Each structure stands twice: as C-alpha cells, then as structure tokens.
Amino acid sequence: MSSYVVSYELSSKERDCTELHKRIKSYIAYYHCLNCTWIIKSEFTVEQIRTHLLAALHKSDRLLVAKIQA
C-alpha cells in the first residue's frame, strides 16, 4: 500500500466538489490537509487513482496525483 498526494484546481469556484470528495474518501485512508489537497493511502496505481478521480471533474479542471516516497 502506498501514500499519494491528491491536489486539484477547479475551473469554476461555484462547482460542487461533493462527488470528488466522496471518491477521495473511498480510499483506505485519507487526510484533508489543505483546501484542495489531500493525502490518501491506496493499493491502486497513480494512473488508476487519477482515472477514478477525473470522472468527478470537469474537463477544464486540473488534477495532480503523485506517489509519496520517503
């Protein structure tokens, strides 16, 4: 299991993040550390997590998923 940082930027401040937050909270563990930044634990790859989360975003939104290595 690995830890990942997830950060996003919505193209519109009025956009609802409920579905995105629901998807983030579906992982084994999560921590909401900054306004649009989370730390999650998952057995999935960066690509799998990114695909899963992108489904909740608009095409003009931005998403970063990066593996944390100590």
Primary descriptors:
alpha+beta; 70 residues; 23% helix; Alpha-Beta Plaits
Give the SSE layout.
Blueprint: E1 2-9, H1 18-24, E2 29-34, E3 37-42, H2 46-54, E4 62-68
Antiparallel strand pairs: 1-3, 1-4, 2-3
Mean pLDDT: 94
Number of helices: 2
Helical proportion, percent range: 10-25%
The number of distinct β-strands equals 4
Low-confidence stretches: none
Give the H and E element order: EHEEHE
Distance between termini? 13 Å
Describe the protein in words.
The chain has 70 residues and is α+β, with helices and mostly antiparallel strands. The protein has one domain: 2-Layer Sandwich (Alpha-Beta Plaits), CATH 3.30.70.100. It has 2 helices and 4 strands. The chain has a 4-stranded antiparallel beta sheet with strand order 2-3-1-4, with helices on one face. A hairpin with a 2-residue loop joins strand 2 and strand 3. The chain is globular.
Outline:
The chain is an alpha+beta fold and 70 residues long. The chain has two helices and four strands, in the order βαββαβ. It has helices spanning 18-24, 46-54; strands at 2-9, 29-34, 37-42, 62-68.
